[in-house]
Amino acid sequence: MYKKLFIPGPTHVVDEILEAMAVPMIGHRDKLYSDLHGQVVTKLKKFLQTNGHIYLSTSSSTGMMEGSIRNCVNNKVLMTDCGAFSKRWAQIATLNGKEIDLIKVEMGQATTPEMVDEYLSKGGFEAVCITHNETSTGVMNPIEEIGALVKEKYPDVLVLVDAVSSMAGTEIKVDEWGLDVVLAGTQKAFALPPGLCVVTVSEKAFQRSLDVENRGFYFNFEELEKKAIKNQTPATPAISIINALNVQMDRIFKEGVEARFQRHLDMAEHVRSWTRKNFALYSDENYLSPTVTNVHNTREIDVVNLNAELAKRGAMLSNGYGDLKGKCFRIAHMGDLQVADVQWLTGQIDNILGL
Amino acid sequence: MYKKLFIPGPTHVVDEILEAMAVPMIGHRDKLYSDLHGQVVTKLKKFLQTNGHIYLSTSSSTGMMEGSIRNCVNNKVLMTDCGAFSKRWAQIATLNGKEIDLIKVEMGQATTPEMVDEYLSKGGFEAVCITHNETSTGVMNPIEEIGALVKEKYPDVLVLVDAVSSMAGTEIKVDEWGLDVVLAGTQKAFALPPGLCVVTVSEKAFQRSLDVENRGFYFNFEELEKKAIKNQTPATPAISIINALNVQMDRIFKEGVEARFQRHLDMAEHVRSWTRKNFALYSDENYLSPTVTNVHNTREIDVVNLNAELAKRGAMLSNGYGDLKGKCFRIAHMGDLQVADVQWLTGQIDNILGL
After folding, report:
1. Nearest of B225, B212, B220 to residue B127 by alpha carbon
2. Are residues B133 and B267 in the same domain?
3. What residues 314-333 of chain B have any CB closer than 8 A to a CB of chain A?
4. Looking at CB atoms within 10 Å, which of A167, B78, B189, B282 has the fewest?
């Protein structure tokens, strides 16, 4: 029995997208591919409000998180630890031989411009890495304000953003907000199968990368750019997913970008209300994520059992991540899920728990 | 109109595999995924005759070519240049800050154990990288003999093999031949869509990697192993392609492994005979590839025009690669193509060219 996914990735994929995954193969040096690639990039530029570079990386987001560090940082980078995924990005920087300083944020709280300012004022940083939507805590960090701060006070510092679980679920004005690198996998709010990462790169970040040592090849912006100008990729790309992304971009524009983001907020509002009534919100009310809600398990229910019962009814949610396992559970409301879906889900949970 | 792909990747994908790409999504930390992952790995171990580690990398082969270097080489590695793809691997090693020595092989000729011996005897190498099947020249290099040589005379040197366009089209006895890392993308002889790379890693290579500096995260064997023991991956994997690979492994065993390799030889023999009759084989007759034939364009036909005519008839072949553009053209005979397909193709070419 299919379990509808209310987990923060992979998310539920609609039939039209599954069909787009099953198209016959084409050559990646053929005009058919270049046309496809060009269409996808044009649509993404409009959607993400950027005139910068856009690369399609055949990898999960984690690959390009590593890539962005290798491209943009010679020596030292400011990282955050506001949950499992920002912490992992810091680990990636270290494993790539970069010196880091780490902003330790209390779990469930946001990374603020003030924190970033305090650390950057020490000097010596080439970039700061911000996790837009921390999937493990359900916090959305204020990247617009952080971008504005860095642009004004630290114009030489690049702003790299992990928008893995926010892009396509909430507005990101890449150029206006001064974001140099913004990356996201396709299996979250884009609601496609996993295996592809979309990344925007500002001209400033691109030029800076040319002077960085030991950038490697696979995620190297320079290598990606050499082929991007021909609407191609250096290595064979995940053609099926790129085709599905092209179809999905049309679906997004058909729904309307504003309507899409409002739908995410509407789903979030329903889940938050239900959470406040029956449990408690784990995270700071001022920075709640529009794509995933972290439910503080104040009733100490058995989350594994709850998921087992939900499975019988055709749904799946996520346990708390890492240290929050059992203490929280997470309901994702992103991608192609509808308000009726999350209403149905909370109704099922009420029924199972006798709420 | 669909063009049947006689190019050396992506290759023609049959309907049953396309359907397997379109299955509903599952969670990558769910038991459903672990079961799938475990099944695929078990089948691959049997197919590749190895008891070593097998990792599924969500990337094209190029990503893991970089990864294998980062995992296995601290300082110096022996590379070859026997065509465009071996040359690129050497470039990747350099871009990752490794010192290389390069065996320059004449185009169309094989990399021999004698050449490898000559270079390795200089000392100081941690690994040697061999391109099994050089897709740009249609040469299959003798990795069995090279593996035997290294095992006997240079037991501390790791043997890394790019089997991108050979794996699943010809037998590779990973353990018996002493191959430490063998990697291949899924869009060549596996006949799946691109976006996934299969890599085998010997215990010796794995242990060696633990002492290598600056291995990064995404392709890091240690990180892959931590999750592989739970039949998972560190980052979200390309679930659709892994599902298609599982279906394809069953199809391979159903056809019979021997029968599959014989079919590749039969297709190759037909294309070689046709080539000898009408053009000439570009590459050394002793090392002809069973998966792709490089046709020396002795008639100086216009390859672009030929492909345009073939397109009208629903087929596509490849021009010569790099310096060989126009001087050669390539006919791939791998994956799920049948002898009747290549017979049909050469018949169409005869008809177009009036041969």
Report:
1. B212
2. no
3. 316, 318
4. B282
Using pLDDT thresholds of 50, 70 and 90, give the confidence band for residue B54. very high
The number of distinct structural domains making up chain B is 2
**CB A186 within 8 Å of CB A192:** yes
- CB-closest option in B5, B23, B239 to A25: B5
Question: Average pLDDT for residues B299-318, to the nearest whole number?
Answer: 98
Give the residue numbers spanning the domain of B245: 15-253
pLDDT at position A149 over 90: yes
Please report, as a single letter, which amino acid is at residue B230.
Answer: K
Q: Which residues of A touch B63 (CB under 8 A)?
A: 58-59, 63, 218, 235
**Same domain assignment for residues A247 and A281:** no
Q: What angle (nearest 5°) sits at the alpha carbon of residue A243, between those of residues A240 and A249? A: 140
B74 touches A: beta carbon within 8 Å: no
Going B51 to B56 to B60 to B64, the CA torsion angle's sign is negative
Q: How many CB pairs under 8 A join A and B?
A: 182
Residues of chain A contacting B60 with CB distance shorter than 8 Å: 58, 235-237
Cβ separation B63–A58 shorter than 8 A: yes
* Chain A CB within 8 Å of residue B39 CB: no
For residue B219, give the chain A residue with the closest CA: A63
Are A269 and A159 within one domain? no
Is the same domain home to A179 and A106?
yes
In A202-239, beta strands by DSSP E = none
B82 and B41 Cβ atoms separated by less than 8 Å: no
Strand partners, A103: A80
Tell me if the pTM is above 0.90.
yes
pLDDT tens sequence across A122-145: 999 999 999 999 999 999 999 999
The answer to whether residue B34 neighbours chain A at the CB level (below 8 Å) is no
Distance in angstroms (rounded) separating the CA atoms of residues A332 and A339:
12
Is the pLDDT confidence value at B190 over 90? yes
| Residue B70 C-alpha, separation from nearest chain A C-alpha, in angstroms | 9
Distance of CA B235 to the CA centre of its chain: 23
Question: Does residue A214 sit at the B interface (CB-CB below 8 Å)?
Answer: yes
Minimum distance, in Å, between the CA of residue A229 and any CA atom of chain B: 18
**Residue from A25, A85, A99 to probe the interface with B (highest B Cβ count within 10 Å):** A25
| CATH of residue B109 | 3.40.640.10
Contact B22 A25 (CB under 8 A): no
A156 and A109 belong to one structural domain: yes
Q: Is A196 on the interface with B (CB under 8 A)?
A: yes
The answer to whether the beta carbons of residues B120 and B109 sit under 8 Å apart is no
Cis peptide before B10 (omega within 30 of 0): yes
Q: Number of helices (H) and strands (E) in chain B: give both, helices first.
A: 12, 15
Integer angstrom CA distances of residue B106 from B96, B110, B166: 26, 8, 21
Amino acid letter, residue B272:
R
Q: Residue A170 gets which letter from DSSP? A: B
Quick check: A1 pLDDT over 90? no
Task: Determine the average pLDDT of the residues in A239-243.
Answer: 98
ipTM above 0.90, yes or no: yes
pLDDT digits (tens, 9 = 90+) for B138-173: 999 999 999 999 999 999 999 999 999 999 999 999
Q: Indicate whether A89 pLDDT > 90.
A: yes
Task: Judge whether B335 is closer than 8 Å to chain A, CB to CB.
Answer: no
Does the pLDDT of residue B1 top 90, yes or no?
A: no
Average pLDDT of chain B, as a whole number? 98
